[in-house]
Design goal:
Length: about 300
């Protein structure tokens, strides 16, 4: 059983800029090698999985250096938890085509001495594959889903509330970086009653410090942060009558459909299955104006925990 370390309620946490904090630095003299320090502000127990995936995608985009190609899809496999702190990133462009490219990224935690990326052997704490492509006009158009009718607006949704009993979940550094509001789903006090009839949540998400660029759109790679959102739907479906548990990402897949405009993103999250210690689900990501901008699928390990 995992133990969750508590963060003191009065411990200060800086509000960070996700675009700046996910930008790696190329290591001089080492083609394809990058370094980055994951700020403590992006920590849950370890560095938030969506943040490490975003940093890997930034490295892939920089190494590919193709302004004519957009992120189409990506798959992240979490082999080892990455703590907040220095990481090294190794990027390999698998294919450079006229209208598309594929890129492989490996990220691993380092100590201070290795932050320059001088190690010859790449680690595999996080492995990401990304597909880039050139979007074009096509006669094949299909929209099979619609924005949930009960999403409401960010203003009508409920702001994040503390747990009914003292909990380290109330003092997670990562929570200081986002404004997360629940439109559909139970409050922390209601979760104590046990399972729900539905394993579904609808929430609104924005970064406390904007990810919107000068052209009015988000840096595409940081969609990985709100895409890492399976937890609320799993907890909604299972409840917490049997105590707290960790939801540890094993794999996250993302698809990009349209640029993200505006500060807010709507997350329509479903937990499809929880069994045998694992959970799998999906999240539709919608802009404020009702455009489906992305889709996330996620598989996670369910780990019982005690507070400490």
């Amino acid at each position: 059983m995992a133990t969750f370390p508590s963060l003191a309620p009065d411990q200060p946490v800086d509000v960070r800029n996700v675009v700046e904090d996910s930008l790696p630095t190329a290591v001089k003299g080492r083609p394809g090698r990058y370094s980055l320090v994951i700020n403590e502000g992006w920590r849950v127990l370890y560095a938030f999985g969506g943040m490490t995936m975003a940093a890997a995608l930034r490295a892939a985009t920089i190494e590919l250096d193709r302004g004519d190609l957009d992120l189409i899809s990506a798959d992240a496999t979490y082999c080892q938890a990455i703590p907040a702190g220095p990481v090294a990133i190794d990027v390999e462009v698998l294919r450079r085509g006229k209208r598309g490219a594929q890129v492989l990224v490996r990220m691993w935690a380092t100590d201070e001495a290795a932050d320059s990326g001088e190690h010859d052997i790449a680690g595999n704490d996080l492995v990401v594959t990304a597909v880039f492509g050139s979007r074009r006009e096509s006669p094949y158009v299909l929209s099979g889903v619609t924005m949930p009718a009960d999403a409401g607006t960010p203003e009508s949704a409920r702001e994040r509330q503390p747990s009914p009993e003292p909990s380290p979940f109330d003092h997670i550094p990562y929570h200081h970086q986002t404004d997360w509001r629940l439109a559909v789903g139970r409050s922390p006090s209601e979760l104590e009653t046990g399972p729900s009839d539905t394993a579904r949540t609808v929430s609104w998400f924005k970064f406390q410090r904007s990810a919107v660029r000068a052209d009015g759109t988000w840096e595409p790679s940081v969609m990985a942060v709100p895409g890492d959102v399976l937890g609320p739907a799993v907890v909604e479906g299972l409840g917490r009558s049997d105590g707290f548990f960790l939801i540890i990402s094993l794999q996250i897949s993302l698809q990009w459909f349209a640029p993200i405009e505006g500060e807010w993103l709507c997350q329509h999250t479903r937990a499809h299955v929880a069994a045998d210690g694992f959970a799998t689900g999906s999240a539709e990501l919608w802009s404020e104006v009702g455009t489906l901008v992305g889709l996330a699928t996620q598989t996670a390990l369910l780990q019982p925990m005690k507070l400490g």
